[in-house]
Specification:
Blueprint lengths: L1 E2 L10 H8 L6 H21 L3 E4 L6 E6 L6 E6 L27
Parallel strand pairs: 1-2, 2-4
Antiparallel strand pairs: 3-4
Amino acid sequence: MLAHDAPLAPYEVPSVATIRSTKGVWSERALTYARQGAELMHEAFLGVRPRLFAHGHYHVTDEATVALPDTTYQTRIWSLNCDGVDGNIRYLDLTTLDTPVLRPPE
């Protein structure tokens, strides 16, 4: 699953949790607006229950593995940085949903 926003706790990467808990940076109006979007994303995330979830929005590179309710697998969450910054691109093997080890051509 690929989305702009991230799900809410406890299904967020540590860097996003830190950003969301920082007080005094955003107005209450902005925080309320952001919370409404995050709640909708959280609901969709739990409805889909993906094996892999990637998002941007917070412009940080991080990842976490979580257990979702009523699943027998772990869900990996990737937070991607903003365009032009290290950590804004991830390679994905679509067969395994894993990050391949890239080797230079021989």
